[in-house]
Amino acid sequence: MIRSMIRVDLPSHLWRLAGLPSQVVQLEVQEPTLRGVLNALEAAYPMLRGTIRDQVTGVRRAFLRFFAEEQDISALGMDAPLPPSVATGHEPLLIIAAIAGG
Questions:
Q1: Average pLDDT of each block of 10 consecutive residues along the chain (102 residues)?
Q2: Taking phi first (over 0 means left), then psi (-120 to 50 degrees means alpha), and beta for anything else, what does residue 5 get?
Q3: Residue 32: HSE in the Cβ half-sphere, 13 Å Cα cutoff
Q4: Which domain holds residue 48?
Q5: Does residue 91 belong to any structural domain of this protein?
């Protein structure tokens, strides 16, 4: 089984909810995919369940996006492999809160 140490950069409302001292968390991930990262994140910080993805459907929340290597990877799907620089922990996976309004 593949194990990776991945850094995740959370938006301020999520790292505060999780009680973290800073926005970056390092996680050991079973599989280097978005699903693997979110599974590890929710296992380590159960209070985040349902905040990033729907608990029943697993679909990403509308106002959150995922970025890796300065690219929006939100539409790639939950099981797409993360870029090597993110999967090896050299670059963080960014979870960005979108802003809506007019």
A1: 85 93 94 95 95 88 92 93 95 90 63
A2: beta
A3: 20
A4: 4-97
A5: yes
Distance CA 79, CA 38 (A): 11
Residue 26, domain CATH = 3.10.20.30
Q: How many domains does the chain have?
A: 1
List the alpha helices (DSSP H) in the chain.
12-17, 34-44, 84-87
pTM of the predicted model over 0.85: yes
* Structure confidence at residue 6 (pLDDT): 96
Q: Locate tokens 């939950």: which residue?
A: 78
Residues in the chain: 102
Instruction: Note whether residue 102 is domain-resident.
Output: no
